[in-house]
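Hi U.,

Before I forget, here's the chain from the pilot set. I'm dumping it here mostly so it's searchable later in email.
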Amino acid sequence: MHSFLNVSPGRMANKSLSAFMVLLAFLSAQLTYSQTNKPNTLKQPDLTTRFWIGSQLLPGYGQVYNRQYWKIPIFSAGMGAMAYQGYQMNSDFKKWQKQYLSLPFDDPNRESFKIKATEHRQSRNLFYAAATAFYIASVSDAVLVYNKGKHSPAAATILSTLFPGMGQAYNGAYWKIPVIYGGLSTFYFMVDWNNRGYNRFKTALFKLIDGDPATVDEFNGTRSSEELRYYMDSYRRNRDLSALGFAAVYILNIIDANVDGHLYDWNVDDNLSFRIEPSVFNPSQSYAQTNPAFGLSCRITF
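Structure:
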C-alpha cells in the first residue's frame, strides 16, 4: 500500500510566490526613488553595461559596489532556499514518476500517482522560477541603485531584457506594459495551443504507422497517414511562427525601452516651437506705394 504526502507541494510554492511579490514591491520602490531623485549633474560615462555584467557573473557584486551589504543575505538566502526546494521537489517528482511507470495499466492507483507526479513537477518549476526571480531581482536592484540620481538608457535596456516591461516602468511609460504583456501572452497561448495540436497528430501518426491493434489512435484509424502528417506539419509551422512572434514582441520591448531611455531627457518644453502663420507686412518707407503686403511668417521659439 503506497502512502501519499499529507501536505500539498502547491502550498509551499505559494509561499515562494509571496516572497516574490515582496521583491516586486521592493523593486517598484527602487524605480520610484530613482526617478524622483535626479539632481542636475554633469553627464558622466555610462558604465552600466559593465556593472551589469559584473553583477551577473558574481551575484552580490553590485550590492558590494553600492555598499548595501545588508541586501546580500536577503538575495542569497532567497536564491539558495528556492533552489534547494526545487531540488527536493525534483527528487520527489522522479520518485512518484518511477512508481507511476512501474505500475500495471489496470492498477487503480496509477492515476493517483500520475497526479502526484504532476503536482511535484509543477512545484519544482515554480521553485526554480522563484530562484531565478531572486537572481533577476539582485541584478536589477544593483543596476537601479548604481544609476540613482540619473536616467540611464542602458539601465532601461537591461531592465527590459531581464524582465519585460520593467524598462518601460523605469522610463515612466506605464501604459506600454499592458500592451507588451498582451502581445506576449497572446503568442504564448498560440504556441501552447499549436504545440498541443502538433503532439496530438504526431501521436496518432505514430500509432497508425505502428499498426498494432492494441495501440489504436484517437481517430480509430479513420484518418490516413498523409492526412495526419499534413495536420501535424500545419500545427508545427503555426507553432514555430507563433514562437517567432513571441520573440519579436520581446525584442521590440527591449528596443522600445532603449529608444525611450535616450529620449527621456529630450527637451519638449512648450517654449520650443516652430510656427507658420499668415501675416500682414507694412511696406517699406522707400516704396512709393502704401498698400499693405500679405504673406506667411515663420517663427522659431527656443
